[in-house]
Amino acid sequence: MKKKMFLSLLTVIPVVTFLICAPVNAAPVKDKIRIGQAVSLSGPLSQSNAVVSTPYYDLWVKDVNAEGGIYVKKYGKKMPVELLIYDDKSDIGTMTRLLEKLILEDKVDFILPPWGTAMLFAAAPIANKHGYILIGGAGGAEKLKEVKLPYFFQSLNFSETQIPVLTNILVELGVKKVAIISHEDLHGIEYSGIASQEFAKKGLNVVMKKVYPMGVKDLSSLLKQAKWDKAEAFCGFSYPDECMLITGQAIEISYNPKIFFLSVGPAFSFYKDAFGVNTIEGIMGGGAWNAKSSPGAKKFTEHFKQVTGKDVGNYWGSLYFYSAMEHFKQSVEKAGTLDQKKIRDIMSKEKFDTALGPYWYDKRQISVNHPGEIGQWQKGVFEVIDPGTKRTAPPIAKPAWPKKPSKSK
Distances in Å between the alpha carbon of 94 and those of 10, 43, 120, 122, 259? Predict the structure, then answer.
């Protein structure tokens, strides 16, 4: 009996010793950082996402993993990033359900944004409810400022910064009459509303203001009305597919306004490739930046080409998205943990160097250092035409459409 008791004690003692010697605050074993995203891989928003967003988040992940990952002091090592991506099928309800799944079931460490303003507006409260940092990508709205979500950060410039600059450019070019069309998404509603106010302040006459439904297939009637009203400036607050439609139909009816501005579309390579350099000469769009904007911008374009074998296809948000993630990475490393609140607190206060240059957020958690608000195609370059030091070229009036549109690049 005594022998059995002695053997039992020998079995128990090592276990007790291990429990006593084990560090009380030892972090659980973790080998990677999982980042989830519910985004449009199919449906009407998928083409835009594939060009505008995905390549630049993918580049950031490749660059991070090429360096061994993100160093997290709590775990005492660099940890590679793994993406878990679901297709929201360009549907807001699907996106919100998948976002909840990523957070509650998959328990990802962080999340990336969906595509589009309305999607972002729906995702931000969910992320905030669960205490997850959400850095806004392709989208932005004044209304998101009003909601005051402590875990939401806006990386892209949007209506409050772009429209006043656009207004000043129109005045600089001597515009008197403006026609506005916009889609029913939050982006179009907000931009057109603010544009009407800003244009009026500078004495511009809005001769037409029309709204059209998402998924529209024909906008020729609105373009014909703008032509009939002799609007010198045409402003379409629209997404890429609609911009393609608007441009093609404007060419068909020979509507040649002095200013042709489309908010989200002209800055992308597929727009330039579809119509050709000569045809898009003088067309303006939201953005903007190019390799001349800064040494960091030039390096970014070269790096993207080196890694992907392709030219940067987005002179709108790509530099913002990549730089926002660089700022995020440095915030994680400074926090030394994956704790969302600690990282959020650093993101809201710290300034870090990125491809865009110094990157930081204001008190509303909106990025501050914009390379440009409005761009214009001039001789194959999407020039920044903002008044001031960031201008890479002065604005010009759009020439008439070529009689035989060129597809040359």
Answer: 57, 12, 13, 11, 38
Q: CB neighbours (10 Å) of residue 172?
A: 12
Residue showing tokens 């119509």: 275
Q: What is the total residue count of the chain? A: 409
CA-nearest of 179, 141, 111, 148 to 328 is 111
For 343, counting Cβ atoms within 10 Å of its Cβ (0-12 exposed, 13-18 middle, 19+ buried), the class is buried
| CA 51/CA 291 separation, integer angstroms | 18
Residue 236 pairs in a beta bridge with: 181, 262
What's the pLDDT tens digit per position in 197-212?
A: 999 999 999 999 999 9
Query: In angstroms, rounded to a whole number, what is the distance separating the alpha carbons of residues 101 and 108?
Result: 9
CB 266 within 8 A of CB 256: no
- What is the DSSP code (8-state) at residue 366? B
Amino acid at 194: I
DSSP 16-34: HHHHHHS-TTPPPP---EE
First to last CA, the chain: 92
The first and second tokens of residue 373, run together, are 């608000």
- Rounded to 10°, the helix 318-335/340-347 angle is 120
Phi and psi dihedrals of 343, rounded to 5? -70, -45
Give 147's pLDDT tier (boundaries 50, 70, 90): low
Q: Mind listing the pLDDT tens digit for each residue in 292-337?
A: 999 999 999 999 999 999 889 889 889 999 999 999 999 999 999 9
pTM of the shown model = 0.85
| Nearest Cα residue to 408 out of 280, 273, 281 | 273
Instruction: Name the amino acid, one letter, at 144.
Output: L
- Torsion region of 254: left, alpha or beta (phi above 0 gives left; psi -120 to 50 gives alpha): left
